[in-house]
């Protein structure tokens, strides 16, 4: 079915804060919908928050045990029929290039059922809405406010604004990442950027707490982006970011960072371990750590030079980038999470898509740590490498 050009045109012409209102009116006219609702996933990825003018919104919906949650998790439409009212509600994933934003709910008069062509058209509408929500977020707070199940700390506000998204997919790879505690994160961060032949991934763990850690991480990530966008090598990216951090803090503050450049056509990887958050690999069912040559954290010393290591990823490989807040987390009786529990968590999530793995692993970590406050923030990033099909689309 052709894309809903009338819907796309209406969304492009709408004011940023009116995007969803215009979308709702358009879908009501297009399909005779009785209700149209947009639910955005919250920062902790545990609840779907209805979009509306605060505080006049409906209660959130769990991502674990609800029809909207199933649509969000499976990334497939779910239909719920209410025969007593002769209605059916279709829940559709709202996602952009693999980044899962939330769920669209459309209630229709059921009649003889919801035709597949209608579901297909509604999914195309949901895809168009997803793109406009991302663009509108530059000019309105409406959608960012809707995601909040509670207030963010200022440090967390800074960190979430720094991130590229929480998942991304292409035919050659799939990425997913999550930070905890979601509403009070401060020093951990991740970044990625893709071109036709390269995928850059960085994972950082800035020292300190609160605003101090967030400022340090913001400086380092933007220095890395500046160097990357200038077309510099991975080693020069690390060098210039190191210089930027050292110039600001003179070695009093620094951050551990992993830098990766994946060559998409071949699977060759360049890697710099500047302080070493942990990397695990799952290959043909075997879980192992990736051995790295430890180098100085960014900003610790002046004029540090960095040397890239090289290895290759194979189709079917899964890489997990795990911060010290996970690796060193303590149970109530003082037992570190470490190898055995972490390996068990990696194994238990092996059948999940990369976009879901970080949230599930961090939930399992919470079960180990108990209800007390975390001593450090935690980051999990999962990369599934599928590889490029020879003689394929490029």
Could you please describe the fold and organization of this structure?
With 394 residues, the chain is α+β, with helices and mostly antiparallel strands. The chain is built from 11 helices and 18 strands. The longest helix is centred in the first third of the chain and has 21 residues, at 116-136.
How do the helices and strands line up, and which of them pair or pack?
Layout: H1 5-13, H2 19-31, E1 35-41, E2 47-50, E3 61-62, H3 67-74, E4 78-82, E5 87-96, E6 99-109, H4 116-136, H5 142-146, H6 154-162, E7 167-170, E8 173-180, E9 188-194, E10 198-206, H7 210-229, H8 234-249, E11 255-263, E12 268-274, E13 278-283, E14 286-289, E15 294-295, E16 309-312, E17 318-322, H9 324-327, H10 338-348, H11 357-369, E18 378-385
Parallel strand pairs: 12-15
Antiparallel strand pairs: 1-2, 1-6, 2-3, 4-5, 5-6, 7-8, 8-18, 9-10, 10-11, 11-12, 12-16, 13-14, 13-17, 17-18
Helix pairs in contact: 1-2, 1-4, 2-4, 6-7, 7-8
Essential attributes:
alpha+beta, 6-stranded antiparallel beta sheet, 11 helices, 33% helix
